[in-house]
Amino acid sequence: MSEASALGTSRVRDAAPLFAALGDRTRFRLLMRLSSSGPRSITSLCARSQVSRQAITKHLAVLAEAGLVRSGRRGRERMWELEPKRLAEAHAYLDRISAQWDDALGRLSAYIDNPPPRR
Amino acid sequence: MSEASALGTSRVRDAAPLFAALGDRTRFRLLMRLSSSGPRSITSLCARSQVSRQAITKHLAVLAEAGLVRSGRRGRERMWELEPKRLAEAHAYLDRISAQWDDALGRLSAYIDNPPPRR
DNA sequence: CTCATGTGCAACCTCCGGGTTGCATATTGG
DNA sequence: CCAATATGCAACCCGGAGGTTGCACATGAG
Q: The complex's ipTM?
């Protein structure tokens, strides 16, 4: 059974915060940098960033809260890395919506462009 | 060529607003209701909702702005329906990140749990 | 040991997102 | 035609998100 089908309706509560974490420009760029360059420290991530280090720190905290990244200490540095599982869950949420919609369309078939007569 | 690979790096700008639209509890529930029941009118969507009709209207506007839904007039009603293409794009963004991460890990292999000696 | 580097913490500011209320406007059933 | 239904629009409120600055604290290089 895929992870997608393992997402119960009750877990929909978790979806919004997850996507909200993805829904910020700065955070999304952080994820992109992290995913393309592998684990990095905060200062390393700040390198060419427009915002301050504290801002980056806060965003990383948000991403961590959403389960999208995790961190570990290495000496005086803190290394951050992606958490692919959570991404997969986001994936599953989208799949669920798509599937439901396809199902609904199967029952109703094009509506706006081809309105059925009102009863 | 899949839609995923058609997403250029420049389009990353569009990703954040898209996920931001998904990242609100009320909006996400709206999408769920829409996707599972097919096209509906605003008042229909307000039925068992906790928030006011205007709130719903605003949320639908946000979703429309993000390209996730579209609407059409039918008499005095306005019917709203899902826009699966945009969902697929969100999908693609997530895929891109996952793929990049896998690639990066392929180069570096587990870091935090198995730190390489510092140079 | 000592200093430079890498983070953590906290206070503070501003702006906008999510909600509400009130009123105006269009359509349609009869 | 007329009232009830379905939306649209605008003003207003409030709390929290995103950002900054300033300072404290830990740790590794030399």
A: 0.87
